[in-house]
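Researcher: Please translate sequence to structure tokens.
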Amino acid sequence: MHKCREGQLYIGGAWTSPGQCEIEPVLNPATEEVLGYAALASTADAEAALDAARTSFDHGPWRRMNIAERAAVLGRMVDWLEARDEELCALVRIETGSLQSFARSMQFGTGISHARHFLKIAPQISSQSFPLETVQRPDGTAIVGGGVAVREPVGVCAAITPYNVPFMLNIGKVIPALVMGNSVVLKPSPYTPFSALILGEAAEAAGVPAGVFNIVNGGPDIGNALTTDPRVDLVSFTGSDTVGAAIQAQAAPTLKRCLMELGGKSAMIVCADGDVEAAAQNALASLTQHAGQACASMTRLVVHNSVRPAFVARLREMFEAVVIGDPADPATSMGPLIREAARRRVDHMVQAAIGEGVKLVTGGRIPAGRDKGFFYEPTLFDDVDNRSLIAREEAFGPVGVVIGFDTSDEAVAIANDSEFGLTGAVYSKNVGLAYEIAQALRTGKVNINGGSGKMSSYHPFGGIKRSGYGREFGELGLHEFTYVKTIAYRLA
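Model: Translation complete:
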């Protein structure tokens, strides 16, 4: 594992060890062992980071460089990270409790892939020229003029990230913001600070100018300092809808732009002619690969009643074959939740559903014989009413509910009857029907029969309703960190 900057913060291009700063242990969620100690920033540290970011943006060289020049510097930063892939994958695995395969692919590999794509396409962004227009003047002469729209950096961006896929989300916010010319203050989850601090080492090694990129680890008080300060122009947040709503309220008095990627209660629709085995495999991966700690998890399994018994039986078989344990063991197929508070929340929701009479198929408890680690059994409910709490609130754990339907219109109505709208899925051999269903779903993304097979760097990602707004990744993800300036000119 890479040895991170214990007890330090990255502010103004320097590693600082604040004298009044609290130190908090960082745990391996599979073993509860202490991995190291991270500094929790004070409000004075947040103030220093904001001042450094504002000064670097207003007076420094970064935003005055062209995009290709910035991309070259950030390319060295990504090179530095990629050269340490083995140790960084190990760091991500033990800090988040994710499987080795997930740490290498989704956590690290997808983050690097997104970064490379941003740096490739950013220099291709060009201004938009408008047609020349003639305006007749009262004296009989004419004015010929035109205009151009250019993209400018927003300014100082506060990036606030969660604990589930921290490396990928940190790099997925920092790289596009920086390459478009902004300055950034990154606040990671206190559960996973080392996956953020490593970016500070990479930026330092690459020669990112002082103050352009800053990292302050801390709790809600530090987040509040970032979201309310008038020096911040944009807040990019990934996390729960409840916290997202609070951040939007905090940002409102200073009229900051916000980019929100929030929770989900996504529906997978399995039609009568859908591939039951493939759909069950998708549900298994979605709910167990990272213990269900993903906003895009398929947690509502909306299955045609003619194939629902077969689907439930197969998914139950898969769930009960899951090997729960420490991801350090290659035989493990599901690791822990991040902390005891997360496990307690999942169990509370599961027990409440059982108390309401919802039909439990399998799971619903802490695995026996595990004294250490925040583990929970993969849990499946069947014949669930879409109005029940377990079908409406995000558990953020390995919990799925099966809801039956008889017609395609009914399936769409069930899927859309949610406060969330992040992702969705459709399984049907009738691709035309599947496409029509996908068009009817009120959600930010839909995968048909498994989708493209990966989280593509070309595809924008984000939600609607309580799943947030704005888009990350792809060219649209770059545009989110800019504003459009129109320049009008006169030729004659």
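Researcher: Any highlights?
Model: The chain has two domains: 9-262+470-489, 266-458.
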